[in-house]
Amino acid sequence: MTTVGIPGGRGVTASLDRPASDSVVVACPPHPQYGGSRSDSRLEAVSDALAPDIGCLRFDYGAWDEGRGERADAENALAWASERADAVGLFGYSFGAAVALYAAAELDSGSEPAVLSVLAPPAGLTDHLDAVAALDAIDCPVQVVVGERDDTVDWEPVADRAVELGHAVERLPADHHFVGQSGRIGETVGPFLRDRL
Question: Which residues pair with 131 in a beta bridge?
């Protein structure tokens, strides 16, 4: 693992697992005001599932900016990874799932991810982060993974729209936190990302 700074002026620090990889997945953590960080167990489970040949860039958001700055952090992390890897994927959990969806929808050609997987995505976070609408603007393959017992976020609109658009939707017997299911997260998300990078 290598610690790197992500350009963009927001003081974003990341951990790059397997830095010599030709393919990298950028992983967006859950809500920073509730303890979300690059060391989140769900992000680590995805990173472990990508080993040994695909790198994972897990980053911490800069100062809280109500979703706007956090989206910029994800976009900057994708741009950083795109300059260094042949293929880049994107993953996000909870708040990070909405950030990832929105970032993937807004990116200019050249920085967009080759594949996107989101875990427990909320339908929206603020007026300017509408995850459901973002799905319509994403061109890469998308996987939406939800916990069937998740009553923390309103994930159903995201899953329903993903089905309408022909994206992969996986429903796991879990709540929002996927307690004790790190292995299952890795087994579900890892192959989807790996097969498309």
Answer: none
Give the tens place of pLDDT for each residue, 111-166.
789 999 999 999 987 777 789 999 999 999 999 999 999 999 999 999 999 999 99
Q: What pTM does this model have?
A: 0.96
Helix (H, G, I), strand (E, B) or coil at 65: coil
Which amino acid is residue 195, in one-letter code? D
Cα 182 from chain centroid (whole Å): 15
d(CA 154, CA 98): 11
Q: Using alpha carbons, list the distances in angstroms from residue 137 to 114, 119, 145, 185.
A: 14, 19, 19, 26
Instruction: Return the amino acid letter for 51.
Output: A
Compute φ and ψ for 179, nearest 5 degrees: -60, 130
